[in-house]
TrEMBL record:
Record organism: Elaphomyces granulatus
InterPro entries (alphabetical): CYTH-like_dom_sf, THTPA, ThTPase_euk
Transmembrane segments: none
Top-rank taxon, per record: Eukaryota
GO molecular function, one term: thiamine triphosphate phosphatase activity
Signal peptide, first to last residue: none
Protein name stated in the entry: Uncharacterized protein
Coiled-coil blocks: none
GO term, biological process aspect, one: thiamine diphosphate metabolic process
CDD domains given in the database record: ThTPase
Length: 215
């Protein structure tokens, strides 16, 4: 019988085009944030990997960010309003890649294959500014090295899942992430003055448009 008792990191995010204010401050609009802590700005170098678009078609994104491997596995929602399980353990990422591509990513003798057998598809430099609002909500504003901007409001939560079937584990994840998404929705509605209206465009979509000269 399937039985799971594991912790996983869940992330729910809602994207926005850009900040609607020149500088995000606690009292920059009405109502003011209950609290706002600026975490500063830093540079991010992302290299995204795939193989014949097999991962992106499955809603899986594998990247090396500043030397650290990460995988984000889509758990529902849309581009603007997305939900992910995040993986950072190398072997967990290898198993994820193998599941969706059929590539044998590791063996007992040599360990995990270089780049999990994937190919780089995009290299993007980003200047990221980050704030923590109302203690729990991470607000991120990204400006890419090719001129595109996009932001997101994120919630992350470690979930301890115990279930008798794989399907019920997935149901638990969906329920937790729906509750997280509801919280983000209420947060962004309350502080609508901080976020520019309009449909945001993802960094990879914008990157490939820029590379093809369509921007």
């Amino acid at each position: 019988m399937y039985r799971s008792a594991a912790a996983c990191l869940l992330e729910v995010e809602r994207k926005f085009r850009s900040l609607a204010v020149r500088e995000l401050t606690q009292h920059g609009g009405e109502p003011p944030f209950r609290s706002l802590q600026r975490l500063g700005s830093h540079q991010i170098q992302d290299v995204y990997y795939d193989r014949s678009n097999l991962l992106s078609a499955a809603g899986v994104w594998v990247r090396n960010r500043n030397g650290q491997w990460e995988a984000k596995v889509n758990q529902g929602g849309t581009f603007t309003n997305s939900r992910f399980e995040e993986l950072s353990d190398i072997r967990d990422i290898a198993r994820c890649v193998a599941r969706w591509t059929g590539i044998a990513t590791e063996d007992e003798k040599h360990g995990v294959k270089a780049n999990f057998g994937l190919e780089p598809i995009a290299t993007i430099g980003t200047e990221r500014a980050t704030w923590i609002a109302d203690e729990d909500f991470r607000i991120v504003s990204d400006v890419m090295d090719f001129g595109h901007s996009v932001g997101e409001v994120e919630l992350q939560q470690w979930a301890n899942l115990t279930a008798s079937t794989e399907a019920s584990v997935e149901q638990q994840k969906r329920q937790i992430m729906q509750e997280m998404d509801d919280r983000i929705g209420a947060f962004m509605k309350r502080y609508a003055w901080a976020f520019s209206p309009g449909k945001p465009k993802g960094k990879l979509t914008a990157y490939f448009e820029w590379k093809s000269g369509r921007r």
